[in-house]
Amino acid sequence: MFGLIPRVVWSRSAPVDEKGRITVQHNCLLLERLDDVPVELAKKHPHAPKLVLIETGTGNKLDAKNREIFALGERSIIDALREVNCDAKDIGGVCVTHLHFDHAGGLTRACEAGETPDWFGPSSSFGAARADAGVKRTFANARLYVQRREWLDAVEPEAARSVMTRTYFADHLLPMEEMTVMVDSPPAFAPGSIVRKGDEPMIPQELRETEVMPGVFVFQVPGHTFGQQAVRFVDAKGRSVVFTPDVMPTAWHVGQAYSLAYDVEPFVSSVSRGWLLAEASRRGWVLCLDHEAGHCFFTVKSNGKGWYELEKAEA
What we know:
By secondary structure, the protein is an alpha/beta fold. The protein folds into two domains: about 150 residues, 4-Layer Sandwich (Metallo-beta-lactamase, Chain A); about 160 residues, Ribonuclease Z/Hydroxyacylglutathione hydrolase-like (Metallo-beta-lactamase, Chain A). Helix content is about 20%, strand content about 25%. Strands 9-10-11-12-13-14-15 form a seven-stranded mixed sheet. A five-stranded mixed sheet has the order 1-2-3-7-8. It has a three-stranded antiparallel sheet with strand order 4-6-5.
């Protein structure tokens, strides 16, 4: 989780269990639209669901042996929605930052007794293969919004999946293919360019965002995966909230060098973290960190030393 940072350094702030694991959450946000969509915007975006979900967590399909690898709890996105009296059928749009198991696993669920599967095939597993099984789409009436590059890397065997075979799973993704909207947001950096320390995106933030649903914007944040995206919306308090993906999964990762060892491009991830923090500081964004345990909302300010620090913000 901390890449090149030595354990003797990161363990000062991040406590571990007896197996060396740190505590993280699979944070998800349920958005409810408060106002009617303006007529002109509705013409541009006829799909304007009242309920939108950002991220889905791991879901409930892994068996006990696979769950123990990560010490996963039993609570899934299905349980979380029930706790707030939300029926998954009422969710009309789902955004995931990227398609790793801990972000997209909840897109599908295990079949309950008597249910007919929506899809049948290989069961997700981090070790030995498991018997094929059927799954149901968790959000039967939702469209899934994901960057095209991310989708292709996840499902095409000759793409990035060739080096990330244990985190993209067929039973999470293939059942959603017909419901997926491929997004082509402008890239942060020109394809094939050499990214250098301190680089900022080649075009302004406003031109890199894609409005996928009224009031819901996505933009690319490369490094962890080639097609990773962040999600921005304005909350009821008028704040721009940015759901921050694995470019900075926890507050422990705010440091410039704190990239994940399994980033496809760790250095690019570090550079992306720099410009994301700079944008957040300039624009007053509230960041929601995808894996922060406990309170996960933060604002950003300069530390006076050429970098940034996080301050807790109201949820």
